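Hello again,

I reread your note about wanting to compare the complex against the isolated chains. To keep things tidy I'm splitting this into two emails, and this first one only covers the full assembly. Below are the input lines as submitted, including protein chains and any nucleic acid or small-molecule components. They are followed by the predicted structure of everything together. The single-chain runs will come separately.
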Amino acid sequence: MSQIQNSNTADTVPMEDDTMAVSVRELTRNFGKFTAVDRVSFSVQKGEIFGFLGANGAGKTTTIRMLCGLLLPTSGQASIAGFNVYTEAEQIKMHIGYMSQRFSLYEDLTVRENIQFYGGVYGLSRKQIKEKTRELLDYLNLWDQANKLTADLPLGWKQRMALSTTLLHDPQIIFLDEPTSGVDPVSRRNFWLLIYKLAARGKTVFVTTHYMDEAEYCNRLSIMRFGKIVEIGPPGELKAKYHARTMQDVFMNIEHREER
Amino acid sequence: MDPLEIRNLKKSYGSVPAVKGVSFNLRKGEILGLIGPDGAGKTTIIRSVVSLLLADEGEILYMGKNIRDNPTYIRSRIGYMPQRFSLYPDLTVEENLDFFGDLFQVPKQKQKQRKEELYAFSHLGPFKKRRAADLSGGMKQKLALSCMLIHQPDVLILDEPTFGVDPVSRHEFWEILKTQSRRQGTSILVTTAYMDEAGQCDRVGLMFAGRILALDQPQELEKQFTDPLYVLHCPQPHEVFEQIYHDDSLYVANLFGEGVHITLPRERTEEQLRNYLQEKRLTITKIERIKPSLEDVFLKLMHG
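Full-complex prediction:
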């Protein structure tokens, strides 16, 4: 293993540590002369719920595309679930799950059929699909809805289903993009309880959001600005540091700094 | 006269009711926000108001005239920004503004003056030669709004204009809306799923399952929540929540990111709460009495 440089950043990232789900060190991506992601270093532990914040254009999407093995970095290192982003992009894709803001489900299929369909997409065997279907219906408390058409379900249930299809191939790391925007306050809380359950089973949850209420539920947050991570820590600590009552205040405070 | 009056609006899609009898007025110069989750009926109300959708029952009056009889009357006088507003991506910022200026038959001289005003408060001036396709999400929304303001409508109707926009751009967007309502007296009806935007409105309607659960000034809604509210600060709020939520005969518990919110019924004391929590041996760092947020109000209304 190469020697770990004594970096002056506070959170030096050990690259080979099996308690880490994500290890990123000096990760950089240029598009022509523009540096979208600028020597970013951080790590996320297994079982952690990590919030990834920043204004539009701060470099979040570029970072996530690199972490998902969809975009090669210009320089730096990153390992996801133990796989190298340069050389093992295909393995990375097999070990992560992704649920987007406006998720896609087949409305004309039942809940059970949707799970079976996505199981097929992920290449699970018939036996595996059967087992997984049972496990997910249990875990998401969806048995009563199993044979209902997806179109007829309230949004809160659809959202659980979308999560379940993300979990079919048993990914180590789950990426969620603004998972509870547009969901009612009661369903939002139920969804977060599911997320905490996932984390307790050792899954790592990576949340991107513009919704600061949602950010508050994460164990730890990072805030990106102009391609760099400018803050990282638990929401409580960040609020204390900025003498702010809410994460919204922290965010606005950081964004209105003049220096660049 | 209130510019908009909605009386007992009802609309179903097949057998699925979307709006179950909604009434409210949009007052002159106010920002009225309809806040609620997807599927609450917000978009159905908006589309009915702008006469794109025919309600099953009820009436909508624009400046006292029933829009059912005068659909073009309202369409030419309001600014309407739908959820997916289509700017012309190949046109520049300025060309988009010119296009909408012509469309709404604003005289050229007036258009010029309006554009300068709109550039000033949207900060889009430096980007006027940029193609709309190349703008950031926040800037696109500001341009879409500017296009809707070029003919200085008396009423502005916006459907989830800030969806997916970052907090800073959202803040700027709301500042534009406030300026418009304060300086020009524009009446604004706006929907959002983001609870944290409620405080930006003069009045807020909390919507759920086709109904408006409550409608008032944000601070008045918060005052309706009269039971004492506490937050239990703790390192693992969800674990504390799982331990105590089922004892809802004693109090109501709701999970928040910062901790667990507890509402005590009037007859229970803070001391009783403290003793109860002590018996449970939960890891709680601090118990603090707090003022209810709109989210607390919403949760209470949903619980019934």
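For quick reference: Residues 167-184 of chain B form the longest helix (18 residues).

B.
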